Amino acid sequence: MTAVLDYQQLKADLSKELPGIEIQAESSFLLALPEDIHHVCQYLVSRPLQMDYLTNLTAADYPEYIEIIFHLNSIVNNTAMTLKTRLTDKTNPKMASVVDIWRGAELQEREIYDLFGVVFENHIGLKRIFLWEGFEGYPLRKDFANGH
């Protein structure tokens, strides 16, 4: 059985370890600002949490923002958690890549780029994975059907 994290305690730990980082704790996830996400991920993969396995990286399009969702696991500690960030600039959504932290993010970031238009800065090879390079638009964005 996977251990359940106390997100309020995790928020307190993060605030102490990473001063200046704004983070919110909900009942089932942490929410970090896009500009802080890389630092938060670096902390989560280190001791004591050791969130060493990125199970899934995905996105969801909401009217006000694009949400990026990380599902993380610690194989050593048998714990799982969810981390989110929200990109409010939907005309130019971008955030730092986490491929340098979890190599498994490479294809998942490319998928989000291809289908939602999120640019992952410092990605090792950001290009479309399903659609061709000349394809216009991002099919999983809510505004795609109206514009095409």
UniProtKB/TrEMBL annotation:
InterPro entries to which the protein is assigned, alphabetical: NADH_quin_OxRdtase_su_C/D-like, NADH_UbQ_OxRdtase_30kDa_su
A Pfam family: Complex1_30kDa
Gene3D superfamilies listed in its UniProt record: NADH:ubiquinone oxidoreductase, 30kDa subunit
Domain of life where this protein originates: Bacteria
GO MF assignments: NADH dehydrogenase (ubiquinone) activity
Domain NADH:ubiquinone oxidoreductase 30kDa subunit: 34-145
Similarity annotation: Belongs to the complex I 30 kDa subunit family.
Name used for this protein in its record: Proton-translocating NADH-quinone oxidoreductase, C subunit
